[in-house]
Amino acid sequence: MPSTHLRRERPLDGVTSITVKIGLLVVLSIVAAVVLMQVGSRAGVPGWITLPVALAGALGVSRWLARGMTSPLREMTRAAGQMAAGDYSARVPATSADEVGRLGHAFNTMAADLAAADQERRQLVATVSHELRTPLAAQRALLENLVDGVVTPDDTALQTALAQSERLSGLVSDLLDVSRIDGGAAPLHLAPVRVAELLGAAAAEATVGGRDVRVETRVEPTDLVVDADSARLAQVVANLLDNAIRHSPAGGTVTVHAAAADDRWFLEVGDEGPGIPAEQAQRVFERFGVGEDGGGGTGLGLAISRWVCQLHGGTIAALPPPGDATGARVRAVLPRHPSARDVQPAAPIQHRTPTQHGTPEENPVTATHPTPSSTTAATDAPPLPAATTDALFGDFWPERESLRTATGQLAGSVAVGALAALVLPYRNIGLGVLLVLLLAGGLVLASSVYRRRRWTVVSAALCVGLASLVVLRAAEWLAVLAVLVAGVLVATALTDARKVLSMLAAGATWVGSGIRGLPLLGRTLTAAGRQERLWPVLRTTALSLVALVIFGGLFASGDPVLGSWVSAVLPDITIADSLVFRGFVWFLVGGVVLAACYLALNPPRVEKVALRGARPVSRPWEWAVPAGVVLAVFVAFLVAQASAMWGGHDYVLNTTGMRYADYVHQGFAQLTAATALTLVTIALVVRKAPRSDPGDRRLLRWILGALCLLTLLVVVSALSRMAVYQQAYGFTVLRVLVDAFEVWLGILVLLVMVAGVRMSGWWLPRAALASGAALLLVIGLANPEARVAQANIDRFHEVGKLDVAYLASLGADATPVIEAGLPADLAECVVAGQYASSLEDDWLGWNLGRARAAQVSGYGTDNSRGLACEPQIGE
């Protein structure tokens, strides 16, 4: 099962180069985006739906491939963390054939070596403690008896003390040898060595101390001479004899046999003890590889002996006893005259992993491959760990530890997307859109961690009002604008944004949730995948639908014959194009809702997005003077405005050479920009104002207060200018919206004045957003297209001027007003020129504006008649 899972998650494991993998990732991502764009285009899906779906598809393919490429690195990071905490059992599945896979193999080998080193360290402490305790205890007891006079300091007592000291010295010598071996500081000094003399001296030394074991030596030929390091070779013989004597029974015999064989010679030591089991034959030569018979010893002697043999260019091994004999046989085979090549430094003493019970050849997997438990743990890891996303988002957007899965949000988003796919395509904006918006908003609100905050409640109420405009008004531009403003409200409510920059960041994090939420999505899908009955059915159904949508859409729209067959089976609809369209809508709406749910469950710290703390000016006039200059300019402008108003048309014409209507239109954009810049200026002055002297702050407050009052007069002047211009040249929806924007700027100025009076403005950004949303809601409820049509009709009755072409361009909201306000023939001409959707409204597509327009005779029936009308009347 783990191997199948790894093959599924790492499709590029067989590629042997990481560079080629990256190239394939880029190419396949581009191919996925192009295919989705082509499918959507052929199915008639609008570009604003196709583009995000194609980008998401490319991102999904790249993430699927990149996940397999980078998962070993993530697992190594996690395993390294465990190793840093002292757990050396972690392994990584090194299944890739590229550089990352080779790194994984090396990592597993390193982990095994570290585990062995840690085990040896622990065993060294235990073994040395045990070995030191016995001679130290005996020596301490003897010295205490000598001090207390219990024992006379004769030769026997001193000999006993000397024996204990020699035992301690031997243990320390072994440890020093191991240290020299590991450090590579144990060179050989080759010289002729008489083997018989070496063995005789070693046997005599080994039997000292009253050991009831007899040592027999035999050398063939008796005058055998070899080239070796005499000290190291004596160490080998002493270690082999010590090991054999310790495991021999009382009265037993240890045989030492040395013989020459061509250019090599061998040294064999045998005893009559319990012997060495076959499965322990290699382990006894490892560090602390003591037998299981309780013979004692540090477990270093045989390991040092093997290293010395290797250093001479030879080998050492444990052999089974001949025939029915018992005991252990250890044979070392060495060159008689080692060459320079033979005496190259050998590998360090073999490390033994804690779980290894055989030779390296018998356990090839242990050092380079993970155990089954570690593999399972690695594959159950989340697809995009927090470490990866933290590197991308940092402390700005950490994930809550309690957030493990979001099954309800995932299921709800899929359901909302499915509902949108069923009710939105091939229908006008109406009741179905409202239903989708309300269900999506309810799901997101229920998921929000800030759902009980006052701002969330206010935002939810405004969003419901704005969403209702899709049913009350037929103007598509109004519906789009209302949904966008509602989206801003939702983003600020979900993130609890309070400042201007935080609110801007909140809108961006909705898009970023598509990436930040991938780990949670992966965990949720993994949890759902454990449902043995439900998940396979859903997965099979989804894959079948995707295959049907993609390939059915391509072939049915690209082959007329196949398309005719599909039409014959389902004559009422083009099933392929419909499925493609609905599939794209499902993915887009469900993805947007799911991203909002993640934003609700795990909001980022948007308050971190802020300007650096400003350094207040030390001299108040540094900002008071510029603010005063702006104030003077405002005064001069208002004086000019008063002169134009009092002088009237003749004064303006004589002074500027322009008609009054042209004069007021020319300066409207500048006044709007001046109003907005005034708010920016006030914000800068407040930010840099001195905070030490109350008198300085009071001066700036008076200047800014006067500037706000003059700005309100500028707003009134701008609105009056637009009113005069519209009365002269006609009313349009765009001019109404510009008026509304200027009104909103005036509201902001009033809010700034209130903040200045209260000496507190933390609420100002939210109040500005709420006032803008409320103003848009008021505009929508006031039916702007109908009011513009009515204003133009009233102007027509007053001055006889009418822009018929513009009236015909207005939507269904204006139709009843046009029918009621204009003469019958002119109204019929205008109404017939209006665009009417070819889609018939059912109850899901019902809209109040279109329902009223449909009751008017001739609405949208003959566009050619509208073109035959005079575009301008009375001009």
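That was protein one. Protein two is written in the same sequence-then-structure order:
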Amino acid sequence: MKKYIVLSFFLLGFSTIVCSQSVSNDQIKDLISTYKNDVRGPYKDIRWFCTDGSLRQPKDPCPENIGPGVQHARYKDAVVNLGKTNHIYLGQILAYTDAAEFWDVKHNHSRLKQYQLDKYLRTIDNGWVNQKGQFYRGSIQSEDEEVWGIEFYKWLLANDTNLKQNYFLIRQSLKDIPHSGDDNVAQLMRSQSKVISDVIPEFMDLRVKIHSLPEASDIQKVENFKQANTSKISIANGKKIDELIATMTLFFKPVDVSALAKQTTALKNTEIGSKINGFISSNSDTSEPSKLIEESSQLLYDIREAVITETSGAKRLQLLDVSLKLEEIVFKTAQDWETETVDELLNKICYLGLATAGAGYVELSEWQELDLGVKPSENKTMTLDELTQVLENARRQVEWSSSMVKANYQHVVDQYTDFEPLAYGFIDDKIRGSVALHLGKAVSDLGDFIAKESSLTNKVLDVPNQSGFRGLNPGYALGELVVVSGSPEDIEVSSNKIYVFQRSPSDLKPIAGIATVSEGNMVSHVQLLARNLGIPNAALSDDNLQSLLKYNGETVFYAVSNKGNIIMKLEKDMTESERALFVKKERKEGKIAVPIEKIRLDETNILNLRSVDASDSGQLCGPKAANLGQLKKMFPDKVVEGLVIPFGIFKSHMDQQMPDQNKTYWEFLNAMFAKAEQMSQDNSDAEIEAYQLSQLEILRVAIKKMPMKPEFLLELENDFKSILGNEMGDVPVFLRSDTNMEDLKEFTGAGLNLTLFNVADKAKIIEGIKDVWASPYTERSFKWRQKYLLNPENVFPSILVIPSVDVDYSGVLITKGISNSNDNDLTVAFSKGAGGAVDGQSAETYLIKNEGGFQLLAPARESYFNRLPITGGMQKQTSTFDDFVLNIQNINEIRDLAKTIRIAIPKETNSDYEGAYDVELGFKDNKLWLFQIRPFVENKKALSSEYLESITPKINKSKVILLLKNIN
């Protein structure tokens, strides 16, 4: 390895720039633009790098007595500096790179991922940073890069942990890192077609076809396109089309199965080697697509199991290369496997699912949970319900496969997109190049068949693949459709628009309707708000999102039924009954009032969590503290100690004089609402809202600077020590906003106000209290209240202060089956670390069944999680997906806890509440900790809407389906 890897001091030592400050995105854009027009690109010169560490001029090779050395370019100083300051590496030369630094464990393998992204950008942007530098002779020696790649993989694959935790990433990287003379032809084909459509818009239809489901017949279509448009196409663009045709011809060239024997020389006399040889013998002359895919898929899966048992890095490398060839066979052959009956389609889905698991798009344990091996009755029949279960599981595998790609690459793609927008297409390119693409097509065919049999059909404009849509929350909306294909984080949303996102923003403000490709998890704060407020919410596929782009900006009607079927139509196509849903009076009646009749503002002493219970909710404090105090009484060993800063302390501080206003903070707030009411006579809603937000900004800033009463600070210090057992500043705590506007019978308020994680410093705790008091006056919190509450001015925050528990994993329990609407089942979503599942993480989600057993609804797909150091703050750690988050013991304990809650909470609180509960909890060393309990609020209006009921079909789940029935 030493022969081919130059130590990192060479990489860093030639920079004359010493700078620790990050380079801005605009500066990086300028660098890239400069390098595109530089004949040397990101490189400054070429040198010989000798084995003894010395450097020599290009025409002065390393002497034989010190080894052969390698010749390649050195990076420009600014490129080196960018790696130091931003951890961004442009134009990476592998022979210039230490293996461990390239694997980049500390940064979640960022350098390797950047290398892959760089290669993608070069194919779609004429060399990208190397547009002219790609012709800089001698800058990169392909043979040295390939030798480096072989040695790198031998080193990497010798470690069992690397392979177990990062199977998908390692296998994907083999498509991009030179090590065997192969190129990623499929990616090149997609990239070339994109380049052509960018310069010849009329080529777009062919590009879409090549990107979605390429076929050998597409070669003739491209040739016909060129011939039909000869007069319009320039010589340069004609050459691009010829290059695409050549690439497509190479791509569709049949895989030489017999050639696999040359790639398995190290596997002789092994069990998996015998299986490979058997496959070669059986399929060298196979012309039957179904047989070839079945056997290729099985071998793909067998290789994935066998690669772990091998110990040699060289053998593992050969196995993975064979695995890539097998995926190529499946990818090219899948469209030739024509299915006529339900039985044949189920068989195709089973084997494509097996291939998808073998290729690493889901973990093996996840594949086993899906149980897609179909077991029909002896009469070759299945009920509609049984067939729908197969569809749902197969659809899950497609979604999990896409989320595996996103989980591995999204962070790096987002980082690059900030300075190079073209980077955002990388993930889509990876998904389209996977065998999961064909699985998705087969699943769509099954969805279409079941839709006909059940009448549960979607009617979403005129987009194809309607079965890719799946309703999550019932509701209806009318508004402008906004389709966001890129990052959602910088989108300013409007409460009267309908949004389609790749994933929902982390800090979503009120909207009329939503649909997302990445569902996140069904118990996140965003999902709970949508469910609570009757906001129609659906999941869709990447292709569905792309199909909706042409309707971006149109006003549409959007409805999700109680069974999850979806309607979306242009406003002009609405029926009279649909128009009647949006009469202003009806919407006004949907608002609710925050009860303040029993609120007690005279309590101005800090409370011990042990002294409050559910009866104090809305009186002394909010429901978080009241209900956690109740849980402390019921489960004393599962709830931490805590103290509560009641409403009265907040109000007493708000009664202080506000600087520069000649009135108190509270009077300022109420004066704002009074003026807003006056403005309603002559001003638009937008003008009133703008005035209110500007005044709230003034109030919020003032609260953060508000002087704290000395008697309160003294009591805080004393109670902190007596209740939490140590001085303030020595115990890291959570400061949780806990208002009287949360957990009402018809409004959840989940996640609208501030929670501060793991605050240790005394001064930061005091400042944090003021930050939490100010948080109900943020734009997001105010807009949600203003939209759904009749008296949003009557918000009073209390604060729950509890010591941090650095849990191993945490999440949410809903004492109801959300996915199946079964009140007796449970829904659980967990992520690693603290704060799991509530912020929309792609969490491990289960349906825990009342009759026993459980079903995995979604695996964890979050690359980073939170740890809570004793010194305060949060540390981000990286996660892998090879093991489940929850274990059987955890699931059984959650099941027992839910039983107790259902019985004990109503009894202990003398409550007539009969609905489900939303519980936040976590595990530390397998010990369960409870952090919150609240009612699980659903939108009764949406659930009982006559219109939604009218579009919800009555399904005969016991209907018998003959598997020999024709699907067309």
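Confidence is low (pLDDT under 50) at residues 1-19, 585-589. Keep this in mind for the problem set.
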